[in-house]
Amino acid sequence: MGRKMEWAGLANHMxxxxxxxxxxxxxxxxxIVANRLNSTSVHNANTLFHLVQSxxxxxxxxxxxxxxxxxxxxxxxxxxxxxxFNAKLARWVLAAEDICFKxxxxxYFFRLEYCAGKCIPxxxxxxxYQEHMNEALERLSDGAWLHTFPEGKVSQEDAPIRRLKWGTxxxxxxxxxxxxxxxIFHNGFEKVMPETYFRxxxxxxxxxxxxxxxxxxxxxxxxxxxxxxxxxxxxRNLSLPTRGWPSISPNKMDELAQRCLYATISEQIRTAMExxxxxxxxxxxxxxxxxxx
Length: 293
Known about the structure:
Number of helices: 10
Distance between the termini: 44 Å
Shape: globular
């Protein structure tokens, strides 16, 4: 399967005019929702800002967060001081194909959408080696910033972080340069855009006077060489049905070794996100506005 409407996100599409218009509109919308209609507090914003703007050249950034509403992205980047209008610094994001790309109009919009067409459609259930995951891998190979929601679905419950999908872990392993992985936890978007506001449906517009909290963690470190060897050793004792995954380099890891490695990395990310969720409880209780640039 080819890449859906990839041409619409190219910098030279119609002279770049459509993407500039959409970029400005969505950026302004995010700023208004985050700062005018609601109140947003960010903990450890400096770490995010530094990695977005000043990480070493050619080193990709991979941010991961929970997913509480259809507004999480791009509104979570609309807080005060964040360079949401700088397309060169902006994130790429994996977006659900069945929601954001379900028809031609939406596909075109989200390929143009916020920050120069930086939405990549992902087919849920399509596996971690689907074509659009290769597109995401190419962006990491370019040293870009990619954001993912590794839980794979919206959850508005105040509950522990669920077991993560393996797609994010596979990108970390397969990237030519190991990305900097930054965990983020947020809450409040479930109140701005509740899934069951009226008769089991979302409200037509974002709600106002809500409190949004964004907790930025610290970069995670992965000793991939050691983790690969451990995964290969562990997989030798397993006997499971396979799905036909390709072997990957280095070490020509087979499917069972990949599963072991992806599970280990995913659990490390999940633990970091869960720790941020727990920390957010005290952050909310203090009611401190923590944005420092």
